[in-house]
Design a protein that fits this description.
- By secondary structure, the protein is α+β, with helices and mostly antiparallel strands.
- It has three domains: about 170 residues, no CATH class; about 70 residues, Arc Repressor Mutant, subunit A (Orthogonal Bundle), CATH 1.10.10; about 100 residues, no CATH class.
- A five-stranded mixed sheet has the order 9-10-11-12-13.
- Strand 7 and strand 8 form a beta hairpin.
- Helix 5 packs across helix 10, helix 7 packs antiparallel against helix 8 and helix 10 crosses helix 12.
- It starts with a helix and ends with a strand.
- GO terms for molecular function: DNA binding.
- It comes from Breznakiella homolactica.
- This is Winged helix DNA-binding domain-containing protein.
């Protein structure tokens, strides 16, 4: 297996060359879609589904609570299927940013949770501003403006099954209590924690493989010890190959017919699954260009991908009904690739309900 073979297989498994049949299938198989920027999470889904969903299709899945927002891998916001809420809770309920707040302010933390549980009995949802009001009532004068107590509290509620975020643009404004999707709240069961990590790992190696154990840890944000235990649990289901002196795993076969030399051109969104899921970066972006993609403060830029080659990053701007797109190339872009960029830009503008204005690649 060489670098190109590795890239082609990952593109197939990840849904770009072998698309998923629906947004729910896509989100479930990929173990969630990172969604700090909701509009780019939707681009990630659109790029991986046949037929491509319209914005209205996704909005209906949000309204029906079949797609939900939780803080999962690496303490970051993801879209998951509602059916995977328990899985996320089993894996991350005790691995959330902000446990120190719970330990430093146990009385206040417990009081806020009790208040939120009362709210859950009385209504189906709660506005983020109301969560802030309840928090301030208990925490007034105890925190500086730079503290992340509210974020820690919300994440705790999500990974312990109390409520989930309603996917919204530009940011979450509403949390929906568990009663909207099921009567009983998630309950902790230590006997289900390791199998849940094993299930998450199996999906990772099936839809992100071939990949190393360190790649999985980078994606999942889990410890080495726990990851090794999960690997032992599912090892007999995996295929293993050595690449550059490291063991790489995958699960299941991919259709050989889908492993084309080139998969066409994609405008991948910010935080695309391909760019947040592997520790090593040189399989997809040359070292000299990596800082343009993986920037400070853990930002991951949108990328133009042509086959297995990253051509550059891209940004867009909106003005009225018009969308303009600008590409920042890593090198020379051929005339044929420029035509494909224009075509993809037209499709993206239509997806966002805009008309394409200018496309600049220089």
């Amino acid at each position: 297996m060489n670098t190109k073979d590795l890239a082609l297989e990952r593109l197939c498994r990840n849904g770009l060359l072998n698309p998923f049949v629906s947004p729910l299938d896509c989100i479930r198989n990929l173990g969630g879609i990172q969604s700090q920027f909701q509009q780019f999470a939707e681009v990630s889904i659109r790029n991986r589904c046949t037929p491509s969903p319209a914005i209205q299709d996704l909005a209906e899945l949000y309204r029906s609570h079949r797609i939900i927002n939780l803080w999962g891998q690496r303490h970051t916001l993801h879209m998951y299927t509602a059916e995977d809420w328990d899985l996320v809770c089993h894996v991350y309920h005790n691995r959330f940013f902000g446990k120190n707040y719970r330990d430093i302010f146990p009385k206040e933390f417990a009081g806020i949770l009790e208040n939120l549980n009362r709210e859950c009995r009385d209504r189906d949802r709660i506005a983020k501003k109301d969560v802030r009001e309840i928090t301030n009532r208990y925490m007034e004068n105890l925190l500086t403006e730079n503290d992340y107590f509210e974020y820690a509290l919300i994440r705790h509620c999500c990974v312990t099954g109390l409520f989930f975020g309603l996917p919204e643009k530009p940011a979450i404004k509403t949390f929906v209590f568990h009663r909207a999707v099921r009567e009983n709240r998630w309950e902790k069961d230590i006997n289900r924690e390791l199998p849940a990590v094993g299930e998450l790992m199996a999906r990772y190696f099936e839809f992100y493989g071939p990949a190393s154990l360190e790649d999985f840890r980078h994606w999942a944000g889990l410890t080495a010890g726990l990851s090794k235990k999960a690997l032992d649990l599912i090892r007999d289901r995996l295929s293993a190959r050595t690449f550059d002196g490291t063991e790489y795993y995958s699960l299941g076969d991919i259709p050989r017919a889908e492993k084309a030399e080139s998969g066409g051109l994609f405008l991948l969104g910010k935080f695309d699954p391909l760019f947040v899921s592997y520790r090593r970066k040189d399989w997809i972006v040359p070292e000299k260009s990596q800082k343009a993609v993986w920037q400070s403060a853990a930002r991951v830029e949108a990328v133009v991908l042509d086959g297995t080659k990253a051509l550059g990053t891209w940004r867009h701007s909106m003005k009225g009904k018009q969308m303009d797109l600008r590409v920042f190339p890593f090198g020379t872009i051929s005339a044929a690739s420029r035509k494909r960029i224009n075509r993809r830009a037209e499709e993206l503008a239509f997806f966002w309900g805009k008309e394409l204005g200018s496309v600049i690649a220089e």
